[in-house]
Each structure stands twice: as structure tokens, then as C-alpha cells.
Amino acid sequence: MAQSSFPLVRGRTMRVTQLDACGVPITGDESVNVSEGFVSVGLTAEINEAEEIEVKNANGKTCVRDPGCPEFKGYTAEIVFCDVDPCLYAMMTGQSTIANEAGDVVGFKMNTDVNACDKAFALEVWAGVPGVACAGGEGAFGYVLLPFMQAGVVGDFTIENAAVSFTISGAKSKDGNTWDVGPYDVVLGAGSTPAKLAEALEPNDHLAVLYTEVAPPAATDGCVAFPLA
Q1: 117 in any annotated domain
Q2: Whether the predicted model's global pTM rises above the 0.90 cut
Q3: For residue 147, how many C-alpha atoms fall within 13 Å in the half-sphere facing its CB?
Q4: How confident is the model at residue 161 (pLDDT cuts 50, 70, 90)?
Q5: Residues 73-102: pLDDT tens digits?
Q6: Whole-angstrom Cα distance, residue 99 to residue 103?
Q7: CB 109 within 8 A of CB 86
Q8: In whole angstroms, what is the distance from residue 103 CA to residue 122 CA?
């Protein structure tokens, strides 16, 4: 089996898909958002540190030692945006949007009655892959997938003589995803045509990172219907 390495630079595009409590994409008019208006996506691994066991004998020498094993629990995400995209924030927090008299979405709210544990989304992020020649696809890209994320909250922000950046904090990856090969064409398949993942995700996969020659989707004008046309 051939293997290859690749560098990743600069975030290109993100896609957020609204999920139900079981991790299944929700079919609806405002269930998907593709955006280039983000500054960074930070992932912090949650780990149960190993508990080392060590016993010394009467002479002070170690006679029993077991270093233990760290336990990976998942990732917590912090996503910083440069655009205010109310429906995207609502998808990632479970909060509500605000509409004007014409029914256009013009803002968002944060309400203490909303339980983030009841809301979920999938997060895909594309990055650049410099210096790697593609073989007939649409380019060279890194693809990062977190298939089952519990919603977060709009975190701290400051209004001052500078750009205001909003941050989604506290979103956590979860066990039990049902992404399988996914609903989208993100890799090259037979005949060098875009296709779904060649290998299905396992239910407790929290993260997948891979090289692809399928370009990221174009940014949407706000949130759009799932499945994408």
C-alpha cells in the first residue's frame, strides 16, 4: 500500500452541517453553511493523563513500575470568525437567529434556556497543500473532518477601536458518529471523479485528516438546504 506525507497551510474553507441528536444530518432549508469568514479553528485534545504506579523496596529501589496509558477522550474546538454569520452561529450553538420584517436573518441571540448538549453539527475544514503535485484532480488540499460535534457557545468578545471577532467556544467532539462515508463528494473516486470517502468512519472516530484533490465547495450565502444541490 502506497503512503504519502503532505504539509498543511492556511485554512481555506469550512462547512458546517446541522445534525440531530444521533449525529444524522438534518434535512431542512437552513442545515448547511459553507464559509470562508473564519480566522482560525483551534482543537484542544482532551486526555485522561496516565496514572503511574511505582513501588520501591526497603532499599529505595524501584521494584514495581507501571507507567499507565493516557486515554484520549476527544477534542474541544474554539473557532474564531471575522464575519458575523447569524445562521452559522445558530447552527453551532443551538441558539436562535433574529429576522427583520421581511423575514431576512439579520442577527442572533444567546439565551440561557438553550441546552447545547441537545444540539450537534459536523465540521469540515479545507487547508492548502503547497508543493504537492496533483494527478488530475482539482488541486491539492488537506481535508479535516470532525463528524459529530456537540454545540458550543458564543464566547468572549470586545467592542473597541478594532475589528470585532466572535468566537464559538466549548464545542466538543462526541462518540457515536453516524457519518459513515459521508453525504458529500470530498475525494477522488473511480475515473478521477469526485466521490464520498473510500473508507467509512467508525462510530467512535472523532477526527479524520486526509489529502484530497477535490476542491472545497463554494461559500454559500448564509445557510442553505441539505442535501446540497
Answers
A1: yes
A2: no
A3: 24
A4: confident
A5: 999 999 999 988 999 999 999 999 999 999
A6: 5
A7: no
A8: 27
Q: How many domains does the chain have?
A: 1
> What's the rounded mean pLDDT across residues 25-37?
92
Could you give the 3-state DSSP secondary structure of residue 197? coil
Residues pairing with 13 in the sheet: 126
Query: Among 81, 27, 44, which Cα is nearest to 219's?
Result: 81
Identify the pLDDT of residue 1.
Answer: 45
Give the residue-averaged pLDDT of 113-134.
90
> Within 13 Å, how many C-alpha atoms sit on residue 184's CB side?
21
Domain that holds residue 192: 9-226
Cα gap 149→116, rounded to integer Å: 10
SS3 50: coil
Phi, psi of 40 (to 5 degrees): -160, 155
Look up cell 431576512; give the residue. Answer: 104
Contacts of 228 (CB under 8 A, 6+ apart): 32, 184, 217
For residue 78, what pLDDT is reported?
95
Report the distance separating Cα 38 and Cα 177, nearest Å.
25
Q: What is the pLDDT of residues 162-221, one digit of tens each?
A: 788 899 999 999 999 999 999 999 999 887 899 999 999 999 999 999 999 999 999 999
Give CA separation, 127 vs 21, 142, 156, 174, 182, in Å: 28, 5, 26, 23, 19
Q: Is residue 4 situated within a structural domain?
A: no
3 within a domain of the structure (yes/no) = no
1: in domain: no
